[in-house]
Amino acid sequence: MTINKNLLIAATLLASTSAMAGGLSLGAGAVFNESPYKGYNQNTTAVPLISYEGDNFYIRQTTGGWILWKDEKNELSLTASWMPLHFDPDDNDDHQMKHLDERKASAFLGGAYYRHERWGSLKFALAGDAMDESGGMTGEISYFRPIRMERLTLTPSVGVFYSDESYNDYYYGVSHSESRRTGLDQYSAGDSWTPYVGLAAKYQLTQNLFLNASAVYTVLPDDVKNSPMIDRDDSFALMTGVTWRF
Questions:
Q1: Which of 2, 18, 39, 92 is a Cys-bridge partner for 35, taking CB atoms 3.0 to 4.6 Å apart?
Q2: Distance between CA 39 and CA 236 in Å, rounded?
Q3: Where are the beta strands (DSSP E) in 61-151?
Q4: Alpha carbon 8 to chain centroid distance?
């Protein structure tokens, strides 16, 4: 199974519906994910749902943060994130793709800044591969706005995800040796900006029990979709689950 960066965005968006409430939330859910790689069918997998908001530390699904500065409108933190994008040739159904090298998921270290206003929130983030799988850098600029009703909170978002040349070439490039082995064209990817739109929903069933859902749609940039490993122009992910707030 292959999970793309949509999971990271969907998980972060889902966690943003809990960020203002504080405290600890634990639960379980499922992710429906369309892989950008050829040879994969639509994937569904179980995932834990974790959110914790403290005075100096937070966990927002796949990202942990150490808060350096926080007030009513600003939050600056150092971050450690798990980037779930990976490629396992043994799980692929395409004959050529089965003979490619594995691409591994990795941990990223960086920083994030949030600016909260009445009209919504802005997020700026930058991180680098701490395990040196790709040796790449990623970034994100996004806008989201929680809309709170009696029991339901909706959080629409729009943003762009940046990936540098090293990141893209590791996950989407085809080396000379791979090309000879598989018959796929040799390919080197450059850096890219991936736009996305998302919507998260949280519904309060009881004082402590919540239903959660988050959907993200991305348009793949040219440096990704032109890779011979890719067979689509866009990608979609849906995360659903139940959480208990302590």
A1: 2
A2: 16
A3: 63-70, 74-83, 106-117, 120-129, 137-144, 147-148
A4: 2
Tokens coding 149: 């009703």
pTM above 0.90, yes or no: no
For 97, phi and psi rounded to 5 degrees?
-65, -30
pLDDT tens by residue, the chain, 246 residues: 344 555 555 556 565 555 555 688 899 988 888 788 888 766 778 888 888 988 899 998 889 999 999 999 999 999 999 888 888 888 888 899 999 999 999 999 999 999 999 999 999 999 999 999 999 999 999 999 999 998 999 999 999 999 999 999 999 999 999 999 999 999 999 999 999 999 999 999 999 999 999 999 999 999 999 999 998 888 888 889 999 988
For residues 47 and 56, the answer to whether their CB atoms sit within 8 Å is no
Q: How many angstroms separate the CA atoms of 162 and 148, rounded?
A: 30
